[in-house]
Design goal:
Elements: H1 2-13, H2 16-26, H3 36-55, E1 67-70, H4 72-75, H5 84-96, E2 106-108, H6 140-149, E3 153-159, H7 175-184, E4 189-193, H8 202-215, E5 221-224, H9 226-233, H10 245-251, E6 254-256, H11 265-277, H12 279-285, E7 291-293, H13 306-318, E8 323-325, H14 334-340, H15 343-349, E9 358-362, E10 366-372, E11 377-383, E12 390-395, E13 406-411, E14 416-422, E15 424-429, E16 434-445, E17 448-451, E18 472-476
Helix pairs in contact: 1-2, 2-3, 7-8, 13-14, 13-15
Amino acid sequence: EYMGIVVVLILFFNYSQLLSQLLFLVSLPSRLYPMRVSLLSSLLFSAALLCNDASAARPSTLNTPPMGWNSWNNYGCDESKINEWNIKKIGHTLVDTGLASVGYVYVNLDDCWMDKTARRGHGSNITTLTPDAKRFPSGMRHLSDYLHALGLKFGIYADCGTDTCMGYPGSIGYETVDAQTIAEWGVDYLKLDGCAADPNDMRHLYKIWSDALIANQRDIVFSCSWPAYVLESGNDPLYPESFDWTYIGEICNLWRNYDDISTGWGSIKSIMDWWAQHQETLVPAAGVGRYNDPDMLEVGNKNITPDMARTQMSVWAILSAPLIMGHDPLEMDATTLAILKNEDVIAIQKDSFGLQGKRVVSDTHRDIWIRELSDGLAVAIVNIQTDAHLESAVEWTSIGLPADFVYTVRDLWARVDLGPHTNALRVHLPPHGCAFFKLIPVTHTKDTYTVTDKLMLLRGGGSSRPSGEAGEVVAVQ
């Protein structure tokens, strides 16, 4: 009966990833037969998600969470920095430092790029979005072409209400023409805010924008802010459990769920805690092509230590979240660059399985987050203490793994293989620090080890998400 289902799934979906997982299920040793039903259920769930993704009409076919840079966290509305010359320099910096080569390809202008006086309606002859002519004298199409010539992609900001958050012209009533203008400019990514719109109208407003973007037949990543405004309004005390995550996943590629991030540990920790509190709702909402967005990276900004930076990177990778840098790349130090360019960590974020991770342990001194991968498991151990170092042993059973399994372990921040291990990991972490590992399962028969190429899809149990900082593996047992 299992093979019959296997054949049907292969014929219907023709996805090599599902085939690989199904073959792994069939090859399980006899002592693990009782797990087959739960494993098969997991694969059927994944197949359903893939089928849904194939039929969904989103503005972009985004197969992994986007990576890039956004102007807001560091530049805010500083018009002396938001200009075409500075943006071109940032584009060159992403290429010259190798950030673009590891995936940071979107260069996104946030609020304050427009001509603030270029209002539409009330007898005005202005009909389209209008950039500030002094700061963008060559126009947006020129800037887009310039970035494309560097091998990068161009992102822009708009608001679905009457004004942007900083009081620049909004797009309500002009969605069709603005979507056409953005497509004509060669834009690849749209962040659509909602500062001057009623959250009760956003279901309709974001659908209008989604349809308008699709109509222009340009592949544009659509980043939506609707859920965050539902939270901010306080009109729905049952949010996020009551929110229609299926619907937003059909019209947007990613969406902000929670408050704006700010520089400092408190903001990063509050986002992680909120994600953990609501993970049973948020995890099913995400998948390939549709991503929860915990907001931009603070790596490299003031009040962010290297340990905090590694923690945020680790957590966001576990969450399968967008990695949108928010620092000033023109003033970046070597430590910041090394953290952002860690390809082992980026590989976790871009894992093809597309599953969002969870926090499975949380106490007064540590959080442990895990994420299922296409070929293993990612584990982040976070010291949530502000003033104390942490020495901790993490036993397999404490994170839902079989006690008798052996795993090969890779330290993702040190980028070294630690070999096969049983039972537990022991770590030493500084305040706000994180140890981040990839575990690949090893089945054992008598005295020999046979490495399997896929992790058992262990589901259920646990409750929350990851965090990260540089840590030392004191002993591996």
